[in-house]
């Protein structure tokens, strides 16, 4: 018995359509990957470098059923002014107070306590974020 060869001889008839399609897919994937990495780098750069104001909540103290005091440490460029948003929540998770506090000090580090009025007793406070003006 003789063996029957089902493959075409290598290199005799040129590249197959599948090989050309695979090459196009690889090139397209590489281009899209480079574009994606470039876009993520751009977003990361602007998030880190262009962030002229940031803050950290040091602690909060529930003073009464209608007031919470929040201690913030704000770091910013000297002369930059901004606004930080504070939120308080009750035990069931409902928002009971919100306040936008202005940071107008010229120093590059501001360490202050702000008072937030609430509609019911709060059990937590959080810093939602800061933006430069």
Outline:
With 133 residues, the chain is an alpha+beta fold. The chain is built from 1 helix and 6 strands, in the order H-E-E-E-E-E-E.
How is this structure best described in words?
With 133 residues, the chain is α+β, with helices and mostly antiparallel strands. 25% of the residues lie in helices and 43% in strands. It is built from 1 helix and 6 strands, in the order H-E-E-E-E-E-E. It has one helix at residues 17-49; strands at 53-64, 67-76, 82-89, 95-103, 109-117, 124-132. Strands 1-2-5 form a 3-stranded antiparallel beta sheet, with no helix packed on it. It has a 3-stranded antiparallel beta sheet with strand order 4-3-6, with no helix packed on it. The protein is elongated. The termini are far apart. The relative contact order is 0.18. The mean pLDDT is 87.
| SSE pattern | HEEEEEE
Helix content: 10-25%
Q: What does the radius of gyration come to? A: 30 Å
Sheet-strand content, in percent, reads 35-45%
Largest sheet: 3 strands, antiparallel
Number of helices: 1
Quote the distance from N terminus to C terminus. 87 Å
Mean pLDDT over the residues: 87
Structural class: alpha+beta
Assembly level: single chain
SS elements, strand count: 6
Which term fits the overall shape?
Answer: elongated
Q: Uncertain runs with pLDDT below 50, 5 residues or more?
A: none
